[in-house]
Design brief:
alpha+beta; five-stranded antiparallel sheet; 21 helices; disordered N terminus
Length: 722
């Protein structure tokens, strides 16, 4: 009969056996002589050990040898564990069994110098942890791949990133991404990027690697190799012994190449635009790999990247072709201009000479000469319009801005068009805003706009009709309410404009044809029986010239009643006149709040910088522009001399590069020098809670974009006293 072990608490053997049997883990108690004295049934079940044999008190070494015989442990693992148990090792230690189980081993010494060993089964925990680690790694990979795809990165970099991860994760010796170029029988597969592990190079040498790389550099024609089967079927292909396969590419045949997997890379419409190839050396087959879904997801994302890169390349090529075509067009027009102007010079010169010097001409001859001269002048005008439009579209026209008297310019244009007005017995009236004296414009181009609009009005207004030319100061809110604008560009409601309008009582234009008016060479009535001559360039040229000034055009028209064409040219050099002038209630708000008041504008967008500067200077403020957050941070640190060196107010954009507006506001409010300077948060963030976030950061007020001129003015007046 087994005698109970002596213990500190005098627990007898039966009590010990009963106690450890209740425990779910395998437990064994060895005495000081290393013989097994107590064990539970879980200890037997773990390794298929017979309890009768264990009751014979085998030595710990004998027990471990039996476990090795059962095939659970290796001999080396058994000897290692014995050494650990008999040494001063810190527990727990871990054992990975051949059956896939993971054990966590704990050992504690008993009072009689024996040892109690507990074998905790942590297989599920380790599997869960391994799965979690693999999933985290997978998600990090897909996120990294997505981040590289989003900003239109270099395609080769994206492919290399994907390959590096896939080769490592799948245990591959090499891999590559090939892009398909061409269609059907004319298709070729060109390698985008490849990844060859050191193991592959070391095992098979540089010769094989170099031969493969050289072949891939040339490309693989359609039908050669197994990849085209994947392209045609859009399904992955797995090959066990590639070098034995009859369709294998000869340059890739090598007995060292293991199993090969070729995976399709699809475009958005399902067309296969590339293939991913992996060569694996692991015992597990590629088609059984748990990362299969991740691999296919990577292929889909690579497809997005390849498709985007190809689209960008096509766009670049199109732009190059367009640029070349534009250059050829310019050269052609310059040549044709010279060729056409030379005979026109003779036609116009001699017809004028005949009219001036020969009094003996009959009335019929004089009439014919005038027809020749008018036709020549008309042809010359068409040539000039074509050349002007071509120059504008190619970006070769630069405005010559200078102060222009608007009333004088309108009167000059009226005089120029008056003979044609008289000929058709029309009435022309002029309506000028008395506040509108000078504007900074290109006089020649604005004259061209006026003559184009007036000529069209004369052409399409029946005899006895009325034409009205008006020029006035108007604002963005009035432009926004216009019936039709061809460009639909964004409008700032408080921007002042010179609005030039030509109104007629002519034939009018149906609404469904408005969109055709401002296109080059486009006419409403383009049939062979049309009643009105012209090439359709006048309005297209007018629109382009207005846009060169930073303006736009608009239209109102009713069929059979008449049309009103308006040109809107933004005012840039008329602030003083506007400040001192008196207008309606809205315009009277544009007054100087206090000369010498200094406002800093922290804004990174050039268009917004120009807009806010216009709005502030129009009210009489001095403006200092700060282009990004880092520059403002430096300014905060340097402007600590005295309150006199500080601005009266800071307009702070929140979404800034390098340092955001929230951090800058907190920095300002924490500075003893700056905390008294009002800060207005100026941002496009207009969602619920954004105002509270801005105020919580220390801002004194919050304004959302797009800015309202009156709201901005009232807010500034609240914090800056005149």
């Amino acid at each position: 009969m087994i005698q109970p072990l002596e213990s500190k608490h005098n627990i007898n053997l039966h009590q010990q056996e009963t106690l450890i049997e209740r425990v779910g883990e395998a437990i064994a108690l060895f005495n000081c002589a290393h013989r097994l004295v107590v064990f539970n049934q879980q200890f037997c079940r773990n390794w298929g050990l017979h309890s009768d044999w264990l009751k014979q008190k085998p030595y710990d070494k004998e027990v471990f040898v039996e476990i090795v015989k059962q095939g659970y442990w290796s001999q080396a693992k058994s000897e290692q564990l014995l050494l650990l148990l008999n040494g001063n090792t810190t527990f727990p230690v871990y054992i990975e069994q051949t059956d896939g189980k993971s054990l966590e081993v704990y050992s504690s010494e008993t009072s009689d110098a024996g040892r109690m060993i507990t074998f905790l089964d942590i297989t599920e925990h380790r599997r869960s942890q391994a799965y979690l680690n693999a999933e985290l790694k997978r998600q990090a990979f897909l996120l990294g791949l997505m981040e590289r795809i989003q900003p239109a990165s270099e395609l080769r970099e994206i492919g290399q990133f994907a390959l590096s991860y896939l080769v490592q994760t799948m245990g591959a010796a090499f891999g590559d991404v090939k892009v398909i170029s061409g269609k059907n029988q004319e298709a070729w597969a060109y390698v985008l990027t490849s990844e060859i592990s050191a193991q592959f190079v070391a095992t098979y040498g540089d010769t094989v690697t170099a031969e493969m790389a050289k072949f891939l550099e040339r490309g693989i024609p359609y039908g050669q190799g197994l990849l085209w089967q994947v392209v045609d079927t859009a399904k992955p292909l797995f090959i066990e012994d590639y070098y034995k396969h009859p369709q294998a590419v000869s340059a890739f045949r090598h007995p060292g190449i293991g199993q090969l997997g070729i995976f399709p890379i699809p475009a958005a419409d399902g067309t296969i635009i590339g293939v991913l190839t992996l060569e694996s050396r692991s015992l597990r087959k590629l088609q059984d790999a748990p990362q299969q879904d991740m691999l296919l997801a990577a292929c889909r994302m690579l497809g997005v990247a390849i498709e985007r890169a190809q689209a960008q390349e096509r766009l670049r090529q199109i732009n190059e072709d367009l640029e070349q075509a534009s250059q050829l067009k310019s050269e052609f027009l310059a040549s044709m201009s010279h060729e056409l102007r030379t005979p026109l010079n003779s036609i116009l010169g001699f017809s004028d000479l005949l009219l001036r010097q020969f009094d003996s001409l009959t009335p019929r001859q004089t009439k014919y000469l005038r027809v020749i001269e008018e036709s020549g002048q008309h042809l010359l005008q068409l040539i000039n319009d074509i050349l002007d439009l071509s120059k504008i579209e190619s970006g070769k026209v630069e405005l010559e801005l200078e102060p222009v008297s608007i009333p004088d310019l309108c009167l000059q244009c009226q005089e120029m068009i008056q003979p044609r007005i008289n000929k058709k017995r029309l009435m022309l009236s002029l309506d000028l805003d008395n506040r509108l004296t000078q504007a900074n414009l290109d006089e020649r181009r604005v004259r061209q706009i006026l003559i184009n609009l007036l000529s069209n009005a004369v052409k399409f207004t029946p005899e006895g009709g009325h034409i009205k030319l008006s020029c006035r100061i108007a604002y963005g809110n009035q432009l926004q309410s216009e019936m039709y604008r061809p460009d639909c560009s964004p409008i700032n409601l408080s921007t002042p404009y010179v609005c030039i309008a030509v109104e007629d009582t002519g034939i009018g234009i149906p609404a469904e044809k408005w969109h055709l008016l401002f296109r080059p060479f486009q006419q409403i009535d383009a049939s062979l029986t049309r009643q009105h001559e012209g090439t359709g360039l006048g309005l297209a040229l007018t629109k382009r010239l207005a846009e060169l000034h930073g303006g736009t055009v608009s239209l109102e028209s009713v069929a059979d009643q008449g049309s009103t064409f308006r040109v809107w040219l933004p005012l840039t050099e008329m602030r003083q006149q506007l400040v001192s002038s008196k207008g309606d209630a809205t315009e009277e708000q544009i007054v100087s709040v206090g000369k010498s008041k200094w406002v800093w504008v922290v804004e990174d967008q050039p268009y917004n910088q120009a807009l806010i500067t216009e709005m502030l200077e129009l009210q009489g403020y001095k403006v200092e522009l700060i282009a990004d957050g880092q520059m403002m941070m430096k300014a905060i640190d340097s402007y600590v001399i005295s309150a006199k060196a500080l601005p009266d107010l800071v307009l702070m954009d929140i979404q800034l590069p390098k340092v955001d507006g929230f951090k800058l506001i907190r920095q300002l409010k924490n500075s003893p020098y700056w905390q008294s300077v009002p800060v207005i948060a100026l941002t496009a963030m207009a969602m619920t809670g954004d105002r509270d976030r801005c105020l919580a950061s220390g801002a004194d007020a919050y304004l959302s974009k797009p800015l309202n001129f009156i709201t901005l003015q009232h807010t500034l007046q609240t914090f800056i006293k005149a």
